[in-house]
């Protein structure tokens, strides 16, 4: 509690407008989308700590499970939430919707990434690969999608 108060005080030194969110413990999932195509869900499993820069790029202590191992109804529900979020925000082209699935299997949208990474560590190419879409094909699809909007 004391640590929380200190953190809030520190953040208010930076700005008078602050967004404080409740921490939701659960499984970290991401849904990749390209236009109307929903890719398989990737689950990010970190051995210790958070999925931060260190765990993403340096430690090698992060596992990516794709497709995520979820009951079919939960899987569809998470994909559906990702796609509804994409549509509600009027996203176009590629996007990645990050979701936390709590211990009661209730999904919560964390954020929408409209410029998802395209490296060997990136989650959108991982989920596209499960659908049989190579990295090169994915890049071409993204370019084609963008050109349609010109």
UniProtKB/TrEMBL annotation:
Keywords: ATP-binding, Cell shape, Cell wall biogenesis/degradation, Cytoplasm, Ligase, Magnesium, Manganese, Metal-binding, Nucleotide-binding, Peptidoglycan synthesis. Its EC number is 6.3.2.4. Its cofactor is Mn(2+); Mg(2+). It is an enzyme of class 6 (ligase). One of its GO terms (cellular component) is cytoplasm. The keyword 4Fe-4S does not apply. One of its GO terms (molecular function) is metal ion binding. It catalyses: 2 D-alanine + ATP = D-alanyl-D-alanine + ADP + phosphate + H(+). Belongs to the D-alanine--D-alanine ligase family. This is D-alanine--D-alanine ligase.
């Amino acid at each position: 509690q004391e640590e929380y108060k200190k953190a809030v005080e520190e953040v208010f030194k930076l700005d008078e407008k602050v967004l404080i969110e409740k921490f939701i413990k659960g499984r970290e999932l991401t849904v990749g989308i390209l236009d109307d195509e929903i890719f398989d869900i990737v689950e990010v499993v970190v051995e210790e700590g958070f999925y931060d820069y260190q765990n993403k790029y340096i430690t090698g202590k992060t596992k990516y499970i794709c497709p995520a191992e979820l009951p079919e109804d939960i899987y569809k529900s998470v994909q559906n939430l990702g796609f509804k979020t994409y549509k509600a925000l009027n996203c176009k082209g590629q996007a990645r919707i990050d979701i936390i699935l709590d211990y009661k299997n209730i999904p919560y949208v964390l954020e929408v990434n409209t410029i998802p990474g395209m490296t060997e560590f990136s989650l959108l190419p991982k989920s596209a690969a499960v659908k049989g879409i190579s990295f090169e094909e994915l890049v071409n699809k993204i370019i084609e999608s963008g050109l349609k909007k010109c």
